[in-house]
């Protein structure tokens, strides 16, 4: 009976581990769309569970009030198996990250 319990625990532990780590991660998808001078977007996903998307646009392009606005999200899986997601905006007001893992003020 002990053998069955130990074997079950080891089996569950092995199956719960991510199939791949970041050192051996493979690119599953990649998108890069550079529209020109006033915007871009890109994204990728890797086999270790990392995902990232980002887009930017220049508001008021060519004027004195031209402003770059970048928005994005990135997520990854911790060694403990928890998915962490970080959303962000960067513009004239600075870089503003948001995520459940970031302490609030």
SSE layout:
Elements: H1 2-16, E1 27-34, E2 39-46, E3 51-59, E4 67-77, E5 83-91, E6 94-98
Antiparallel strand pairs: 1-2, 2-3, 3-4, 4-5, 5-6
Describe this structure in words.
The chain has a 6-stranded antiparallel β-sheet with strand order 1-2-3-4-5-6, with no helix packed on it. It contains 1 helix and 6 strands, in the order H-E-E-E-E-E-E. The chain is mainly β.
What structural keywords apply?
disordered N terminus; single chain; 105 residues; mainly beta; 1 helix; flat; 6-stranded antiparallel sheet
Q: Structural class per helix/strand content?
A: mainly beta
The helical percent reads 10-25%
Overall pLDDT level = 83
Helix-strand topology string: HEEEEEE
Count of distinct strands: 6
Uncertain segments are 1-15
In short:
By secondary structure, the chain is mostly beta strands.
